[in-house]
Amino acid sequence: MTGSDNLNILIVDDEPLARCRIESLCGRMDNIGCINVANGGREALDMIAQNCPEILLLDIDMPDISGMDVAQQCQRLENAPEIIFTTAHSRYAVEAFRFDATDYLLKPVKADLLKEAFARALQKRQRNQSDRQKAADHRLWVQDGSSAVQIRSADIGWIAADRDYMRLCLPERTYLIHEAMQSLLERLPAEMFVRIHRSTAVRRDFVRDIRRKGRRRFVVLQDDAELTIGPSYIEAAMGAFT
Question: What are all long-range contacts of 69-73, with beta carbons under 8 Å and residues at least 24 apart?
Fold first, then answer.
């Protein structure tokens, strides 16, 4: 973030008057860094990739890409912005919160409600950053010859069942741990790994692509490895990576 707790804002709305009003309200708030505006979904996605805003004030009905589609694509980002939907319609509220939205404000947006939404977004972001740091620091004890060593869970690319063991695959080498898959996943940070097969789990951010060849579906990892998705895990994998 800029400063200590300053928030960089991206306002996304295809209506000029609505953009100006929301921009004016944001300018009166404390702890605000840069305020940028986008007049549609495509421009918003480009600006999110370039500027990594902390807060996204997102309209829903737009002519090129809807706010829902923008929110869905944001979910794939490692450091996704907190989303506050700003719309003239209440009918999208239930769907909006499927994307873990911080708030859902109806136009014309009221200053006091926007201020409350910003406060929740800042608290949520700080909590998520703390959780990510804890996850990054999480470690497992594994056997290395006659010694026991610690490895970072965040360094494990994928996990593969190997008879009565689980093989932990890291960039430089692998380790075996005598434990059932489900038990091991329950010990790892929540949502860090996705199970794609009864004998395979992958680190969520280690997946580069998900593909289909004939009837086979598989994930492509950052190191170019390809791992098959089991038939009963397709729905979960598609939800996690698309």
Answer: 69/41, 70/12, 70/41, 70/44, 70/45, 71/96, 71/99, 71/101, 72/99, 73/45
Least confident of 2-6, 199-203, 218-222: 2-6
Q: Dihedral, CA atoms, 120, 123, 125, 131, nearest 10 degrees?
A: -130
Alpha carbon 205 to chain centroid distance? 9
Q: What is the pLDDT of residue 135?
A: 76
Residue 176, classed as helix, strand or coil, is strand
- Nearest CA to 202 among 190, 212, 210, 192? 192
- In this structure, what DSSP letter does residue 188 have? S
User: How many Å apart are CA 34 and CA 94, to the nearest integer?
Assistant: 30
pTM for this predicted structure: 0.62
Tell me how far apart the alpha carbons of residues 28 and 220 are, in angstroms, rounded to a whole number.
46
234 token code pair: 């397709």
* Contact predicate 175/143, CB 8 Å: yes
